[in-house]
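Most newcomers find our protein records easier to grasp once they have seen one. A learned vocabulary of local backbone shapes supplies the integers on the structure line. An example says more than a description, so a record of this kind follows:
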Amino acid sequence: MKVLLFAIRSRHKKFFVELRKKDKNIFDIVFPKYKFTFSLKGLKELKNINLEPAIDFAVEEFCVKVIALPKFILYGYFKGLAFFYYLKYYSLIDKKYDAILLWNGGKCRQRVVIEIAKLHNIQPIFFENGLLPNRMVLDTKGINAENSVPRDRLFFERYHNALVLPETLIPRQPKNQKKFKQIVTSLPHSFIFIPFQVDSDTQIISNSKWIKNMRQLFDVIEELSLKTTYNFVFKEHPSSSYNYPDLHQRAKDSGQLFFANGYATQALIQKSLAVITVNSTVGIESLLFKKRVVVLGDAFYRIDGITKGVSDLEMLHKVFLDLESWIYEEKLVENFLKYLYYDYLIPKDENLYTHFYDFIKKVIK
């Protein structure tokens, strides 16, 4: 058994160095940042790969992060870059490997890696932080909307687990401490909570057909507020580099919209009547506190009886016309969360690397 640990960033390499200690005969680490080899052998395989998803993601990410230039110009540039990555990575990914472990899998470079893995019949394994407190994702299919969690409510109706779920979330440290010290003097007595996400994240670029950025999300909620009597509270994402002074002003002028960056996410969830999310982890966390969750994007937890999926403003309006009659299926949601916490996710504890090692051996076996 041979496994390639493919590190795109330094923090991935640091994690892999510790994992490799479990068995140096099985694991090899590659960190392409400092590799300058290329393989022209990959040229004959070009007809058998699809670099379009990698190119398309890179174009969209650039438009979000940098500037929205004409896409045909960006497409040519990123097509060349994807080709560059392909020749570089082809020289590093040998057919001798049974599996390749990489972070996320949804961004440009990771998508190129996956194409090469397919060529060599190598099993990709994806990992990422999160979903529930002190847990990590480890999956052979993908992360987020692409993961292997069952989508059939019947599966969760039949699932049983007597263990208890966590009751406390782990706060994420914000990049901009000053912005998240802004305290609203008082929250509305009752409100709907809407967590912002990162516009350039794969969750928005790849898994959100309707809402393409947080300004559009604000516009949708603002329009919804005109049709209902509910109050709506937003919190910006702690990892986002964007500032929204104009949206803050629009919220102040509305009388029904509020920003509450200074409040802990858990407190906002617990005080809320319901939560609206594109496809954030906050949606899953909200289920821990028995909240009704509306999902606007593609998400693995967009399952009948667990959350309500909405694809346009009209559907969203209908949900809030009838919010009070929404029957929260507590047992079904509890089973879903327990499956995630105890069966699907990997405990992020002192045995983390052992959990990874055991999972990988089981997959390859």
Summary: Residues 3-130+345-364 form one domain. The chain has a mean pLDDT of 94. DSSP finds 13 helices and twelve strands in the chain. The two ends are 9 Å apart (CA to CA).
